[in-house]
Amino acid sequence: MPPPSPPICEEQPHLEPQRVESENVIVDSQRQEFDTNSLERDPGLRPQIDTFLPNERDNVRRAYIMLGPCQPKLDEYPSHFEGNQMRRFNGSWYKQFPWLEYSVHYDKAFCFPCFLFNIDRSHKAFTQDGFRSWKRIGGKDCVFHTHVGIINSPHHFAMQKWMDLKNPSHHIDKVVQPPHEVTKNRLRLTTTIEGIRYLANQGMTFRGDDESCDSFNRGNFIELIKAFARMNEEVEKVVLKNAPFNAQYISHKIQKEILNIFANKVRKMIRDEIGEDGNFCILIDEALDDSKKEQMAIILRFVGRDGHIRERFFDIVSVHDTNSLTLKTDICKVLGKHSLLVSNMRDQGYDGASNMRGQWSGLQALFLNDCPYAYYIHCFAHRLQLALNAAAKEIGLVWRFFSMLNNIVNFVCASAKRHSELKLTRQAEIEDLLAAGRLGI
C-alpha cells in the first residue's frame, strides 16, 4: 500500500528548475529566456508567440518588432506549377504590403502583425500554415486584400497593436501623467465646473459674440474664469493662457458635456423624489422656438415623500412633428430612460388641441390604452384663456376695452419719446395727489 500523500499545506521540497534546450529558445520550468540575436527569423520555422510564457511574450514581441518583418530579397524566388502555369513569389509585394513576410524554407507568405498578435486563431493561413497560392494575388479578389479586411478586422487590430508596441510614446508609463500634472488638471477642471454651475444656476448665457483672445468681452463663461484667476493665484497658473492648448477645458463641447451631466443629476434627484413605485402625472406643452424647431416640454407632477405636491420640469425634447403618436413615442423614450413606468401614470394635463385631447387618436387616448388610470384633464389655464377670449368677443364693452388698451400700448411703446412723456405725466400726477393728501405713502 503506497504511503499517504503529504497534506497540501505542508512545505513541499524545493525542485531544481528543469531546462530543455530547443534550437534557439531556452525553456525553463520557472522562466523562459531568449536571445534576441538568435531568434528564428524564418516565419515558417519560428515558434508561435503563445508557446512562450505569458510574462515573456511582450519581450519576444518587442524583439521581433526590433528585427522587423522577415522580407528576404532573392535574385529568383522558387517557382511551381499552379494549374498549367509556373508561378512564384514576387518581392515587389513587400512595398505594397509592408506587413508581408516570406519563408525561404517553405516558399510561403505570412503576416507579421498577425503572428505577433494572433487574435483570430481560427485562421492559420498567414500565421502558422503559410500561404502559397500565388495566382490568387492581384486583382479585386486579391487574397492579401481579403486578409486585411475591413477597418475592424483582426488584421487591423493586430496592426494597431504592432504600431502601439513599436511606438514607446504610447506605452502606459509614458501616457500616465505625473501627480503634479494631475493636480493641475483637476484644479483647471474644477474651475470650469464651478463656472458652469454658477451660470446655469443664474440662467445666464455662456458664449460671447467674440471669444478670441484679443476680444474685450469674451462672453460670460470665459470672463468668469478670468475673474476666478484674478482672485486666486493657483487658479491663474493653470487656466486659459497658462493651460496646455489641448487641455484648457473651455471649449463649447466641454461646456455642453458638463451641462448634460448636471441635467442628468437633476433628473436623477427628481426620479428619487418620485420613488421606485411612485405614481406621477405628466404635463405636456409644445411650442415653436426661434430656430423654427418644435420643442416639447415635459413636466412631472407628483406627491413627495413629505406629502406635498411637487411640480418639476423634467426635460425638453425636439420633435419633428406634433402627431400624437410621435409625441407619445418621444415621451415614452424620456420616461423609459429614467425607469418611469407608464403604468404608474395617474394623470395627463394638456391643452385642448385635437392632437392632444382627441377621443380616439389623441395623445390622451393613446396613453389611456396603456394605462386606464391616466385620466386626462384639460389644462385649467388654457380653459381660462379660452373662456376669457370667448367672453371678450361676446360682450361688446369688454371687447372694446381690450381693443382700445391694445392700441394704446402699441402706440406708446412704438416711440421712446411717447414712453418718456407718459412716465413724466404719470410722475406729475402722483406728485399732485401726494400734495393734495389724496394719496398716502
From TrEMBL:
Residues 11-22, 30-41 have a biased composition (Basic and acidic residues). Signal peptide: none annotated. Residues 85-174 form the TTF-type domain. The gene is LOC110747436. Residues 1-41 are annotated as: Disordered. It comes from the Eukaryota. Coiled coil: none annotated. It comes from Prunus avium. InterPro entries: DUF4371, RNaseH-like_sf, Znf_TTF. This is Zinc finger MYM-type protein 1-like.
